[in-house]
Request: fold
Amino acid sequence: MKHLFIKGKNNSEETLILLHGTGGRETDLLDIAATVNSSANILAFRGDVLEGQQLRYFKRIHPKKYDEDSLKNEGQKLYDEIKKLFELYDLDLNKGFIIGYSNGSNIASHVLLNYPLPIFGAFLMHPAYYSEQMRDRDLSHLNVLITAGARDFKTSAGDAFKVKQLFEERNANVQIELTDGGHEIHSDELMQGHVFYIQKRSAL
Reply:
């Protein structure tokens, strides 16, 4: 799995893990990362799966039905890569924070719901987790911000609230924010992500 690593400023101990949407690449969320925390280390991943000519993190049968074997295999791969690269670059997993958009937010949800990843938070933009793959884990250490667009016809606000419920059932601290936008990343989301990050980082 290809990745991009950018060393943070002033010896920052915080790391943002970036996961793009369908058709994206590892550089897509750099501007968003700069808004959330301009000093943090960056670890951005490129999806390995092709859907037509578009890169994704796992296969799907249709927009609301995942290829469950692909999700399981790619989720394991991403989890292993995160752990390996945090060790390679001498980073603190407890100070890691995921930023995921669309397909990136879905693979992030899968990894967080199924693997012992001790990061302190996640910013999930326009998620919709349609899989039954999830473990009964205690996520009380995890702070999650979920954003959704009221006019999003790809992943609805209802989808986002279902993801919120999955995390809350596992004791995560979850906040959800809606915008008037569609599936695109709205400017309000960036400010919400920045404020949320600053609030939760101060508690580390």
User: Anything to note?
Assistant: Helices lie at 30-36, 68-88, 103-114, 157-168, 187-201. The first strand starts at residue 3 and ends at 6. Residues 68-88 form the longest helix (21 residues).
